[in-house]
Every structure is written in structure tokens, then in C-alpha cells.
From TrEMBL:
Pro residues: bias regions: 284-297
Keyword Metal-binding: no
Protein name, as recorded: ATP-binding protein
Family annotation (Pfam families): DUF87 (PF01935)
SUPFAM superfamilies given in the database record: P-loop containing nucleoside triphosphate hydrolases
Keyword terms: ATP-binding, Nucleotide-binding
PANTHER family documented for this protein: HELICASE MJ1565-RELATED (PTHR42957)
Organism of provenance: Sphingomonas parva
Residue ranges occupied by any Helicase HerA central domain in the UniProt entry: 14-68
InterPro entries given in the database record: ATPase_Atu1862_pred, HerA-like, HerA_central, P-loop_NTPase
Gene Ontology MF annotations: ATP binding
Amino acid sequence: MSVMIEMGAGAGGAAVTMDLEELLATRLLVQGNSGSGKSHLLRRLLEESAGVVQQIVIDPEGDFVSLDEFGHLPIDAADYSHNEIAKMAARVREHRASCVLSLEGLEMDAQMRCAATFLNALFDAPRDQWYPALVVVDEAQVFAPAAAGEVSDEARRLSLGAMTNLMCRGRKRGLAGIIATQRLAKLAKNVAAEASNFLMGRTFLDIDMARAADLLGMERRQAEAIRDLQRGEFLALGPALSRRPVNVRIGSVRTSARSSSPKLVPLPSADTDFGDLFSGLADAPPPPPPPPAPRPTPAEDVLRALEAAADAPRASHSARVDLPELDEETRGRIVETALAGVVAEAGAQPLPVLYQDFGLRCRMLGLAGQPLDLPGFRRRLAMAKAGIGLEDVWEPALALGDGVPEDMLPVLLRLARAAREGAPCPTDEELAHIYGTTSTGRLRRVLTFMEEQNFIVTRIDLSGKRSVSLPALGWTTAPSEAEHEKPQARVARRR
């Protein structure tokens, strides 16, 4: 299910949109010289997708803490230890809370170590917490430098390894890396190369224009167009944006950074006398002491806030619309409809992605909140794949399914349905689709495992037709309509 967000206007004022679901699978690289509008672009992306997907921002300058208006929890990294930062990242992953990790108060070496700790904790979350999340890293050349700099080798190794994991292996864990850099030449190539979507802002150095043109599929002589871009204009390309490079002017935002571009102000008048500006320094009173630094928020309070953030309502700039209360029958129909839609488009996507899709479909159908927890959704999804409902007649099959691994439950329930109805045994291709694979060999290994554990008994007659029995239930399928490998052939192959 696609969710389109509007990034700005293209040629002729036409809206340029980004496919958020495609972005989660293909990642994004933003490049532009200082002042080209990268932070404005990232802010637009975050604001437009807030409330749709979890967002995690690694912020070296503290510019994005103002996103607390959208429910993002700010974390000032300077106040906490590495162990506390790792615990916060784990809590963020578990509770799907959006947050901004501000590294503003740290030296560059400490910034790299802290970012590595936070990203690694996100990456190491348990499989059942692999929910989709946008991980935005501003000034990515700091955390994934192309060459050694003034920081220690250990800090560079830790940070570069974490960034490489995010961009190269994060997709399977639901982490979609969005990195922004001033110069492509300063960014490690193995990190930049994993992005499939690009938003290229103005740049003037030949080496950066050449690399940007290569990524955009432009000829070198066309790279001059990158130099002519105005502030806030970007060339967009990628499966989530456009199949051909298009010019987009980024739209407005509702929050602002604490820092801004310098503006000219009038100088003192020409007749101002500065002759005695530095006179009487010895008799001048000492400057007042600086105000005490604010006391940092205890780590336990931040961890509790992360737990509460998942249940807190998102900030809204318009009146909230309360959905009508629904009776149990209507709620059940909506759940069944949403499950059917998920099954129709499931493919081989991980469970957390399907769970989020299910919740979104329920909201689109008028059902507020998440009607099923994750274990309940896993069970109902298996039932929907097998084509069985909530009738009492399926309780014995569901009880039997409690003993098989969770990923095998849809296959067992589909066999149980065919056996109870006396229908022909499903084909390997149908069972493989239900299991979430295109490999019939992998499906056969699943059937072999269930047979070894006495959940099923498989019989292939001399004509090659298969039937499956569930001894614990006393149910047996009719012989399959398609021929399977005959017993003699199986024995010969094993030899």
C-alpha cells in the first residue's frame, strides 16, 4: 500500500511526490553545498511523513529538536553515558517512538562514538521489533568519512561500521537510511552507493558535480545544471521520486531550526566615535558570572517518556476528527477486510511491515487504534492465509498449530482446512505462496519437518498424487489433483 507525500513543486507548478513505502525499501541520499537547503528539505520530508511512519533523527547541530511539535522526543546526548544511550535506542525501537538525538554539545570524536552506539542498538533489536522507521542522518560525512581525519581511528571505525550497517543491511530490519551531506567526495563510497533515490542540490566543485552527474545518469556536460540550481531547488531521481531527473523546489515547512542564515543589519553611523572604546578597562566591573547550566533530565525520566510516546497523540495543527464508535460486528468486518487486503499484497514482507499495513488499512476503513496486538495479528494473518474464520470448528486445528513454529502455522492451517473439508491436497506452489516463498524446495523442507514432528503424515500413491493426514485431528485430505514425485523416484534420488 503506497503513501504519497508532497515534497514541492516541479516544472510548471506540478506537484512532485515521494512514495513513502518505496523510500523505505530504497533509501535516500541528499547532497548540496552549505546553504543549498538540505536541512529545509529534510524538515519537509519529516513533517509530511510524521504520523505515518516512525522517525529517528541523528542531529549533529541540534537543528531538529523543534520537531517536538510533531511528537518527536528530543534526547540531548551530552547528558548521558553510552550505556544509557544504548538503552534509549532499544526503547525507541521497542515502542516505535519518534525521536531526535541531538549531538550538539559533543566534540566530533564523541559525536561519532555516540551515533555509533545509538545506531548499533537500533540495528541489534530483536526480530519482532523490526518495524519500519526512517533514520535521518544529517551531515553524514561526519559519521561516514571517506578518509581519516582529526578523530581517532577507533571512533571512525565504529561510526563508519554503524553507517554501513544502516545503509547496506538496515532494509531487512525496517531501517530506511536517509543521509544528507555537503560533499559527496567527503562521504564514504560504500555508504553513498547503497541509496537508490537522490536529491541533488547546488554544488560548485567539479569533482562533486561529476559524482552527482554519475549518480543521476547525466552526461558530464549536463552537470553544469547542478551549479545553476537556486537555494531550495534539487534534482530528484529514484524509484520513490521519478524515473528521470526532475527539478523540484521544496515546499514550505511549519517548524524552524534554532539557527538561521545570517542577515545583513545596518552598521553604526559613520560619525560614531570609537576613540575611547577600550579606555578604563582596569576600572570596569568584572562581567557577571554565566548562568548555571540547566540540570540534565535523568535518564530514567527519558526512558519513561519513550514508553509513553508510543501512546501519546501526535501533535496536530488542525482540529481532531473523532471517529464514530463501532459495534463489535462492524469492527470484526473491518478487521476481516483489512486482513484480506494484507494477504492479497503480502508477498515476502516481514511481519512488522505487514502489521503496520494492517493498522493503516483499519484506520482507512474508519476503525481507530490498533484492533490486534502483534501476537494476535500473527495468528489472525495465518488464519486469513489459510482461508479459515473464527468458527468453533477450527479450534482443534488452532490448538494443534500452537505446537509448530509461527512461520509454519499458515501451512498447517491450510492443510487442516483441506483435510476437514475433504478437499484435494493443496499443491506445493499454493503452500509455498502461503508460507511466503517462491521456493518449492523450501516448502518441502517445511513439510518434512512437520512430518518428523508427527503433525502430519504424507502419502503419495502410485499415480503420484499426494494426500495429507493430521493424525491428532483424524482429518485427511483427498488426493491432490496434480502429480507429485513418486516414492520410487524419491528413494532413488536419496541414494
